[in-house]
């Protein structure tokens, strides 16, 4: 279902990890149906990311999107609720 997310990114500071500095970025926001689609969609987004200061590369991140939508099956209305977790992790060390 098409939806729009209005996101805010906030710099929380610098973290040292493995001898290297990373920016800690928090993402928060809301989800809503696009105007004119006639869908009652709503939800939230929240997450954290570590970003390399020298390259801008996202090293680690976890974003959780929670949404609900009113749907109609036949003539009965219902609410669908879901969650999506997105994670970025560093690769495992080579053996």
Query: Strand share of the residues?
Result: over 45%
| Count of alpha and pi helical runs | 0
Mean pLDDT value? 88
SS class: mainly beta
C-alpha Rg (nearest Å): 18 Å
**Share of residues in helices:** under 10%
Poorly predicted runs of 5 or more residues = none
Q: What's the number of extended β-strand segments?
A: 5
Keywords:
elongated, 0% helix, mainly beta, five-stranded antiparallel β-sheet, 95 residues
Describe this structure in words.
This protein has 95 residues and is mainly beta. It has one domain (3-88). The chain is built from no helices and five strands. The protein has a five-stranded antiparallel β-sheet, with no helix packed on it. A hairpin with a 5-residue loop joins strand 3 (41-52) and strand 4. The model has no long low-confidence stretch (mean pLDDT 88).
Task: Describe the secondary structure blueprint for this structure.
Elements: E1 3-17, E2 20-33, E3 41-52, E4 58-73, E5 76-88
Question: Outline of this structure?
Answer:
This protein is an all-beta fold and 95 residues long.
